[in-house]
Amino acid sequence: MLLYGVSTLYSVFLWRKGFRRDDHINYLLLLGAFALHTTSMAKRGFDLNHCPVTNLYEATTFATWTIVAVYSVVGLWPRLRFLGAFAAPVLFGVGIFALMPRLDTPGTRSTLPAAWTSAHAALLALSYGAFGLSSVAALMYLSQEHDLKFHKLQAVFSRLPPIQRLDTIAARLLVAGFALLTAGLAIGAFDLGHLENPQAYRLDPKVLWSVVVWLMYLGLILMRWKFAQGGRKFALGAIGSFAFVLLTFWGTNALSLLHHP
Amino acid sequence: MSIVVLGLSHRSSPVTVREKFAFAEAELPAELKGLRGSGVADEAVILSTCNRVEVYAATQLEPMRAFAALKEFLLRSRGCEEILTEEIYSHCEPLSVQHLFKVACGLDSMVLGETEILGQLKKAYDVALQNGHTGGRLNKAFQKAFNVAKKLRTDTNIQRGSVSVGSVAVELAEKIFTRLSERNVLVIGAGDTSEKTARALLSRGAKSIIVTNRSHEKAVALAGTLGGQAVAFDELAKIFPEIDIAISSTSAPGYVLNRAKLEPLMKLRRNRALLLIDIAVPRDIDPEVNLMENVFLYNIDDLQAMADDYLKQRQEEVARCEEFIRQQAAGLVESARGRSTPGEITPAFGGH
Q1: Cβ distance B174 to A162 under 8 Å?
Q2: How many angstroms separate the CA atoms of B307 and B168, rounded?
Q3: At residue B54, does pLDDT exceed 60?
Q4: Quick one: which of A3, A4, A213 has its CA closest to A93?
Q5: Pairs of CB atoms within 8 A across A/B
Q6: Which residues share a beta bridge with B43?
């Protein structure tokens, strides 16, 4: 977390400089954070003797791990290292969220088949990772679009890719996240059938919240493809939706009897 | 043996003088042979471009004698009988080496930081090298000059950005569209700047050019020179859905394109990004269209301001570049005198 924090501070510096500085320092900071993050997750996995995606804390750290893992690979290309300046604040923010109380609670996986529950949690964590990356690309889009609209020299001086590419990347990641979310929720629904009285959980806050999130992302995708609402509106939608997920995930999880029996 | 340079450039003489001293590439081997044969220079390179003619020589002679002999060679070789005093400059070490490095980096160019000169310098050196007119001194000096130019290009802003309106427009297009090779360009009006901008976009791989003008004959003529297609002015709305970049430079007194006209066209284009470049004075495109989503409007002042900003940034880098060049030239001269070995390019350009 400390390294994610330092990287976030350094990212502010990079933003102010319009991405003109060599950002290998940021890459190394995030690479160091990735190594520590991986070690921590591996240790927990060995301690639990299963994939460490059984509670909210683990799901959140797994999601951030997928983001930093993708960045570690992408950052091998020096021209793409600037992505770290956008990923670091997201990783730090979500990391702080993961440290909130009552997230790291054991025992929510015992009553259902472990394989299905793990698949459900892992797919959802991956989907949130994809949504997170999508919002990072959307953030880049908005930054670059603002500079282009206001005729700032920084728009051509920065190392950000063309906004059309950023828009495409944000959309593809969001669709990938939606597919993973759909698969994860479908497995969750199937998993629910193993409980004694599944109907009792129909109005569970987490179930309702999941449906809302699914509909929200479906709406974004439909607006884009059916009504050509790409660009700034789509970017704002991707960021807003991910912010909604981040801000309400913890609360709905705490209220859910299904996830907190 | 030391390196000296003698020549004339856009800084010291007008084109009417420079053109008399220009060397054709085919002449260079013979001229270099003659120069070395005269005993003035052990090694020599002649650089001849539209902005400068310079003779770089490694010589055993005292600098003042070398300058006189090189000047005589230049005047005799070009058949010039005029008495030139202010127009011709000369430098001995270390200024001669510093001058070579500055030329390589575009610091002595008419457009500060331009890169074309580096290619011309490489070519001039290559001609001399291939014909056996260079040796240890000039080889090291020129190789170092190329390295210094590369280093400064990478680590400073001296060669970054574009300083012409057309090139800025191309850079903007490259920051909006993923691939220019898939983009169609529309030229509205047949002005000189719009033609240059369209050419700049074509040179960077734009897919096609469509030209429209109130005078269809002019549109056909411009389309012919650009290798594009001409369409009638009243068919503008029909072709617009296919357009990604529009350059407008008509002499119309009012707006050719405004928000009311553009909104339905954007729907037809499914809100794809659109770059509008308004070069006309008075303006052709209502500035309010820039408020529309996925529309990016730049007028001539916006583009000129960006080009000026680039130039300003380059100018701010000159002092840093010159300091670096001084260090590198001193290192090279000292190593040639046997006091030290040639150093790598070490000073870092961390700060901006």
Answers
A1: yes
A2: 7
A3: yes
A4: A4
A5: 58
A6: B58
Tokens of A112: 């259902």
Q: What is the CA radius of gyration of chain B?
A: 26
Per residue in A53-109, pLDDT (tens digit) is: 667 777 778 878 888 887 788 778 776 777 788 888 888 888 887 777 666 776 555
Residue range A133-169, pLDDT digits in tens: 889 889 989 999 999 999 887 777 777 889 998 999 8
CA B89 to chain centre: 23
Residue from B163, B175, B313 whose CB has the most chain A CBs within 10 Å, to mutate: B175
Cβ contact, residue pair A148, B296, below 8 Å: yes
Give the mutation candidate from A79, A153, A168, A229 for the B interface (greatest B CB count, under 10 A): A153
Half-sphere exposure of B210 (CA within 13 A, CB side): 20
The amino acid occupying position A224 is R
Subunit contact A156:B161, Cβ cutoff 8 A: yes
User: Which helix (H) or strand (E) is B184 found in, with range?
Assistant: strand B184-188
In this prediction, the answer to ipTM > 0.90 reads no
Active site residue B50: yes
- Which among A17, A149, A230 is the nearest to B271, CB-wise? A230
- Global confidence as pTM: 0.68
Cβ burial of B114 (10 Å; 0-12, 13-18, 19+) is middle
pLDDT digits 0-9 by tens, B170-201: 888 989 998 888 999 999 987 777 888 888 88
Per the CB < 8 Å rule, is A151 touching B302? yes
Contact call for B175 and A144, based on CB within 8 A:
yes
